[in-house]
Amino acid sequence: MPAPLFPLFIDLRDRRVLVVGGGAVARRKIDALLASGARVVVGAPALEPSVATLVAEGRIEHIAGRFDPNWLNDAWLVVAATDNPIINRAVCTAAEARRVWANVVDDASLSSVQVPSRVERGPLQVAISSGGGAPMLARHLRERLERELDESLGDLAGLLDRERERIRQRFPEIGARRRFFDALLAGPVPSHLRRGDHGAAQAAFDAALATDASPARGSVALVGAGPGDPGLLTLRGLRVLNEADVILHDRLVSDEVLALARRDADRIEVGKQVGGDHDATQARIHALLVEHARAGKRVVRLKGGDPFVFGRGGEELDVLHAHGIDFEVVPGITAAVACAAYAGVPLTHREHAQSVRFVTALGRDGSDPVDWPALARERQTLAFYMGVSGLAHLRDQLIAHGRAPGTPFALVENGTRADQRVVTGTLDTLPEAAARHAVKAPALLILGEVAASAEALHWFGPQPLRLDSPARREPTMAEAA
Ligand code: SAH
């Protein structure tokens, strides 16, 4: 993959732009350049009538003749719009030598700048580029945006532009201003504009501006980020992430999900390190939540999966409640539900599994708080949230308490992520199968009759691995032990 293009919006007002070529293609480019206020000079031996008219009207300048590199003198930008590839190339070479940006119409490979597909709503522009590699895809997306973006967005952008100074004076502080915008956009102004009622829109705007902005009141949203695939974040979670001032996130939260958050939000990783002091980490999280919310920030506490499933989310709410801080909770898709789906394992089954249990806290610090006799009962699916080191103990206990050694399992590593792997087999050889394929955290174990369907219903990522599948990755000594 080549490095991506750097997007820019250029102010061409009163800047000299050379267009080489005087035909229909050149004409389209000239129109677009004139609309941006550029001072257009067209260089060509001959001009088609409509271009000649522009020259006659004094709206553009004409240099007659074959391309000469000196035409580039004083130009900020050149557009090569001839149907002659040799001339287009000569234009680019000369432009490169003079450090003038060059665009060749319909030839991304020669161009040092490319013109994006765009959607315009008044002063609001959405520009789309595929880097020249997939122009049809960019066009498809453009058509979609054309459908989705309401025409009145242009009026809205215009209104905000006109009122910019008043808004700034009313709310000099950026946080207050942002809250004003959020409230404004959620309020009646956009719908008045959609109906074309500019008077009502202006009145609603004036009313919103006059409303006393209450002093910044911090809050915390406890948000479930889901298991990793960003498509599994909820819309509510996405909106809250878009409004966040500060994001406190676990290590388990994927980069793809974090990439969806507001760009200028402060991101603080508060993940628990393996072998670290979890209580100290938790105390620090509590302190950070309170500190930032008290400072008037909109804090998002972003957790892997669902915040209330083995996430200590309840403890965090207790702290917020005790400090009188506003909070909300946005659920996420928990690992068991997500991994089951992405491994083709229905968690319940009319005959084999009438209940599902989400289980954790296996063998940490040597303690074993698990009710093994209850777990060993048949006709239920078990979903274990745990590290892979406790698997032998788990197998031994379940079999000792009566669960059939032949009970199927599906062990899902990095569930829903691009590097998801699934190991399947039966309970009696679970730890061996996991060791053979060097399964690492995060991994979720699904145990029960339903796990057998992972073979047939597998649809995401590579085929499930079995004890006798060739090991693709050498286990380290520690893992093998
Ligand atoms: N609140 C989280 C769970 C946190 S406990 C949730 O609702 O999902 C951490 C455990 O979750 C890990 O040890 C692992 O067993 C499981 N887990 C989380 N994300 C996972 C993923 N993408 N794939 C497999 N297991 C995952």
Automatic annotation (TrEMBL):
Binding site for NAD(+): 24-25, 45-46
Sites where the protein binds S-adenosyl-L-methionine: 227, 304-306, 309, 334-335, 386, 415
Renumbered residue ranges of the record's region Precorrin-2 dehydrogenase / sirohydrochlorin ferrochelatase: 1-205
Key word Phosphoprotein present: yes
Active-site residues, as the UniProt record annotates them: 250 (proton acceptor), 272 (proton donor)
Alphabetically ordered keywords of this record: Cobalamin biosynthesis, Lyase, Methyltransferase, Multifunctional enzyme, NAD, Oxidoreductase, Phosphoprotein, Porphyrin biosynthesis, S-adenosyl-L-methionine, Transferase
GO biological process: cobalamin biosynthetic process; methylation; siroheme biosynthetic process
Region (Uroporphyrinogen-III C-methyltransferase) location: 218-481
A GO term for molecular function: NAD binding
Metabolic or biological pathway, per its Swiss-Prot or TrEMBL entry: Cofactor biosynthesis; adenosylcobalamin biosynthesis; precorrin-2 from uroporphyrinogen III: step 1/1; Porphyrin-containing compound metabolism; siroheme biosynthesis; siroheme from sirohydrochlorin: step 1/1; Cofactor biosynthesis; adenosylcobalamin biosynthesis; sirohydrochlorin from precorrin-2: step 1/1; Porphyrin-containing compound metabolism; siroheme biosynthesis; sirohydrochlorin from precorrin-2: step 1/1
Sites bearing Phosphoserine, chain numbering: 130
Domain called Sirohaem synthase dimerisation: residue spans: 152-209
EC number: 2.1.1.107, 1.3.1.76, 4.99.1.4
Reaction catalyzed: uroporphyrinogen III + 2 S-adenosyl-L-methionine = precorrin-2 + 2 S-adenosyl-L-homocysteine + H(+); siroheme + 2 H(+) = sirohydrochlorin + Fe(2+); precorrin-2 + NAD(+) = sirohydrochlorin + NADH + 2 H(+)
All residue ranges annotated as the Tetrapyrrole methylase domain in the record: 220-430
Siroheme synthase central domain span: 121-147
Biological role stated in the UniProt entry: Then it catalyzes the NAD-dependent ring dehydrogenation of precorrin-2 to yield sirohydrochlorin. Finally, it catalyzes the ferrochelation of sirohydrochlorin to yield siroheme.
Family recorded in the similarity comment: In the C-terminal section; belongs to the precorrin methyltransferase family. Belongs to the precorrin methyltransferase family.
HAMAP family reported for this sequence: Siroheme_synth
Record-given protein name: Siroheme synthase
Organism field: Marilutibacter aestuarii
